[in-house]
Amino acid sequence: MPFRGLNSRLRNDPLGPGGLASLSNNMQWLRGAAAEHIVSSGEHNSWLVARRCFTVASAGTSVTPSTGSGDVPTATHPATGSYALTLAANRFGSTIRPLVNINSDQIHSKPMIAAFKVSSATSMTFYLKQLSSALGAGNTWADHDAAFDVALHSTPLARGTWASDQIGHARGDTLTEGSTDWNAHVQAHGNMRKMLQVAHTSAGAHNVAEVARYYANVYYDGSAYKILTGSAGVTSVNRVSAGICEVNYTALTAPQFAFVSPDYQRNNSGSGAVIVSMNAERNSTTKHTVYMYKYDPAGNSWSVYDSDFFIVIHGS
Amino acid sequence: MSYSKLVKVCQDFALGKQQVNNAIGNLEDFYNAWTAEHGKHETVGPFLGLAADPYTVLGVHNLPQIPRAVVEVTVSASAPGGNSYSISAQQPVVAVTRIGAGFWFIAMDSTLSTFWGIAEPTATSNSDIRLAVPRTLLPAGVGQPGVYVTTYDSASGTFVATDYSFTCAVYAY
User: Fold this and answer.
1) CA-based diameter of chain B, in Å?
2) Residue A256 CB contacts under 8 Å (≥ 6 apart), including other chains
3) E strand map for A183-297
4) Is this complex scored with an ipTM above 0.90?
5) Which residue from B minimizes the CA distance to A99?
6) CA A47, CA A36: separation in Å to the nearest integer?
7) pTM of this prediction?
8) Which of A289, B53, B66, B109 is deepest in the core (most CB within 10 A)?
9) A36, A89, A173, A296: which is closest to B158 by C-alpha?
10) Residue of B59, B63, B88 with shortest CB distance to A32
């Protein structure tokens, strides 16, 4: 049943069972709109939204979550470039799908790559490597330490159940203090407001780091980077030098997390891929800098590369 | 209109029109807030002979910066006769197709036009040197829109497209 706008009541207007029922019908619709959130807490609960974003320090012994530090209580550093995370029980499903960005000055002069292994719902490991060959001279990689950002997407948790909200529907029904009347509807309003404000402004904008706030589709025109399209919050891009692009945006509350992806040779043929490695370093509450490198299969070596790219920026 | 705290009724406190109007105002505010960045279309389209739009279904997050789907492709090297793979994805993903070794196509519902992905490779240990590279399509309408992902491995000293498990968050606008 759709959400129906209702007219304000005047003195002496009859409320009627239909009028009252329409209030609870609209509340039911709103509950559908809030379907990707946990009923009791308002926390996001969807594959589409990260359950947690956090930074793992280069030393591998500290984790800086955006919120809810208990979700990723410990990190260890069993070997150079290896980071083992312990995840809280019952907070991540058996399937975990991360986004990773190496957020470090270690990406300034060499490409870095990351891979992950999920061992269980409470244990996963990240492996970081840096090109050990010189640019333009080889394709040898070595385990390497660096700080990195993670957005952990996971199987949605149990959503929970809504409290009853049924105002009298039939002629002759009366308002009582019981659980199925106006008072329950009053409670439903309070719960809905609380749920909304956990991760959104009162106007509905997301305001937690688990949800990306900005995006931009950035392209290189041969001499400068430009924004093809993006959020209004991404204010400008600036080519520092070959393969380095600053992305400036309206300030977000730290920590912000950026994730980047190459975007090039858009066509439908499926061939002609360029192998690009890119990561973004967090510089301030208003800027990330993207560092891009390209693999040359013929020469089996890497070089700096001006690539078109997409970027999403999380923050609150 | 700002949120108005409603008052519960009791024997000595009757429900008046102002309370009802406050409730109506709250509901309108909630509507505007929840639909600001979430889908608001009920899934009645198919019943009316219309195509459903998975990007704007009631409650789904509906912004370019939020993934439209988070895909996992699990490759099993121990399958009889060679590799097999399984796919786990959400509704806007129409299909995931293995085009060749390490070369995958995530086909997306074509209601939107511009897609991109952020792909992450899995590893079995720190000896794996892997890089998953997504590649996107524009414009839609020329074949099936979606995201290509090529999974490379450098075990031999050069990056070669190789089958292994990966994840990919797909974005679109």
Assistant:
1) 83
2) A209, A282, A285, A288, A313, A314, A315
3) 212-220, 225-230, 234-241, 244-249, 257-262, 276-284, 287-296
4) yes
5) B120
6) 9
7) 0.92
8) B66
9) A296
10) B59
